[in-house]
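Morning F.,

Quick status update on the modeling queue. The single chain you submitted on Monday has been processed. Sequence for confirmation:
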Amino acid sequence: MNQDSPLSLLLKEPGRSALMSDVDGTLCRIVDRPEKAKVPVKAKHSLELLSQDLGLVACVTGRPARVARRMVGADSITYFGNHGLELLEPGSDGPTMVLEGEQVDRAARFVASHDSPHWVTAKIRVEDKGPIQALHWRGAGERTEALVRTIAEQAHAAGLVTHWGRKVLELRPPDMEGKAGAVEALLTDSGLTTVVFAGDDQTDLDAVKRLRTMQGKGQIDELLIVAVDSDEGPPELMEVADFVVGGSDDWIDMIATLAA
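Structure tokens below.
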């Protein structure tokens, strides 16, 4: 592995180091239709090589864990999908679910009871992510966004948590910690003390804040935050990041340089 990489702090004690990355907007470009997003093979190979030496290589993503594994293609790394609801470890056939019972299908039941032809006409696309239901409207106009905001108010009144992303509204079960809970779960009692985290969205900022808190408590010795710049991302993420890259290709290049 390359000692000249900006990520070389991971090489001081590789077995106690963790590399965590978001997927959409970080390991691949954002596209109009989420199902058409592709992670370059270069990223897959680099992550697989790094997993042989580092204590943890993980993708922390809003995608369902199985979908994320299929997109990235690296079987030797960990996937924490659905914003912290599904943990898929290397060698496992299926993910471990964090939620149980009524909470699992609460958002899906809301969508089933509120979906209407108006949603289709307004070009709202529903992505079924199990416990999370995502409403996408990339490519639609302001009227569609106004309709989505009305849906968000209805969902909130129904006891769901609404979370806004890049042209997407996620309807989530209550008491869900998201990516913040995911990164803490991966690190707690793991013996990992050096962490690099990369992301581009509000959900990634949530994870960054939790990681900073853990560092402040002495649970992490060294922490490097990499932000992938985006006009649609939260400005605060760029402000708190230690390193800002211009796009997903730049972040993949950083990973590849470390793995070379």
